[in-house]
Design brief:
The chain has 468 residues and is α/β, with parallel strands linked by helices. Helix content is 24%, strand content 28%. It has three domains: 4-151, Rossmann fold (3-Layer(aba) Sandwich); 153-333 and 364-378, Rossmann fold, CATH 3.40.50.12780; 386-467, 2-Layer Sandwich (GMP Synthetase, Chain A, domain 3). The protein has helices at 26-39, 54-65, 79-89, 152-166, 183-194, 209-217, 227-235, 258-267, 392-400, 425-437; strands at 14-17, 23-25, 45-50, 69-74, 93-97, 106-112, 115-120, 132-137, 147-151, 173-175, 198-200, 222-225, 248-251, 274-280, 287-290, 305-306, 311-315, 321-322, 329-334, 341-343, 358-367, 373-378, 382-385, 388-391, 407-412, 415-420, 444-448. The longest helix has 15 residues, at 152-166.
Length: 468
Amino acid sequence: MFEKKNYTKFKKKAAIITSENEVIDYETLFKLSDKFVNQIKKRELVFLVCGNNVESIIGYVSFLRSNSVISLIDEKINFKHLISQINIYKPKFIFIKKNKNPFLEYKLFFKFKSFYLYKRKINLNINLNKNLQLLISTSGSTGSSKLVKLSKQNLISNTKSIVKYLKLKNKDTCITTLPMSYVYGLSLINTHIFSRGTIILNEKSVLDKHFWNLIEVHNVTNFGGVPYTYQILDKINFYNKNLKSIKFITQAGGKLDISLNKKIIEKFCRDSKKLIVMYGATEATARMSYVPDRFSKKKIGSIGIPIPGGKFWIEDKKGKIIKKNYVKGELIYSGKNVFMGYSKKLADLSTGDENHGILRTGDLAYKDKDNFFYIYGRIHRDVKVFGNRVNLVDIENNILKLGIKAICKLTKENNITIFITKHDEEKILKNNISSLTNLHPSVFKIKIIEKFPMNKNLKISYNHELLK
């Protein structure tokens, strides 16, 4: 995807700038990358234990150029979980920040800055499907062996689509706000290198003063965030920050609270600044849809229209396509960015494309008269209460209309627990919950917790012990 010959006109253009202001232009990036490519003689499976640092990005570009299969692993993974993954998939190489923990079946092969490349001592004949390029987890840093298999075509197709609808140019500069091992965070890296833009490396929180200094010093034009990111930004009133260089911000990774969405449009989207709301999944490489900025006010709450090259439709429970507007069903997506399938064991790396460009999202949705799509729930979050089928996402969204952020779970038979973080919201909920849901108040239990548990991708961790 990143062919050296396509960057000859941009040799002296900054590709990466570190938080310490080290500038790596595209000529240097490829010179450093060549060192890796020369070491890896043939197509191999590589574990890249990555973060938002120079070593990870150059390693990633290098392993793509060597046509290796890359498994992206979060740098915060527990070492025991990492060893478990190594035992299951037996990678030829492991590229990781120098650490004290030894890999007994590996030897030190190559050093690059603060990272070491380890090579398996014994050669194993691992059958890798010819189209397979990337393995990425949807489970954060838990070490699950279930991985999403992405092809070279998946990566190229989705990267080109995002570049097209965001109109990214070589003058664009982004700053990292999300983990590289998270498909959304990776897409920012892919699109900016592909468009010959610049990436400002940041490992600080958006609350940190250094983050805002980097934006100002390097004239950052865009950054991305999940709903939680924008909740934090709103609390610190980021609208008053020095954002003169910012052209647009993007949001994905879950539904943004409608009131916050409106507030960002009202207070941020001035002087041609844009908020681009997007929808996607790891299984779709990154993005499936977006809301064009000219519709940002009119279509608040929508996931928008399919990305270039993609297509949506809605099916009923019998698999029949629903053509009428405002009729709900499962959202189905098709496109060249749909993943090959899941991998749970080594043998799965040899199998071909199981999905053939079709992804059943598991999201319940409808479309309006303008063919903009709206999600109202998840199939797997449908539960039965006294024989009545209700959707927990639907209840959460209705509670949001009261200005209350809540998490709903079926904690025992016929009982839904509503988790909130503020004591003064409990009375409001008790007074309104029946009318919001058409269920008897006795169905609900309200529990106050200090904060909502988040995973490394800043999404709600529904399986966390706090939510029991």
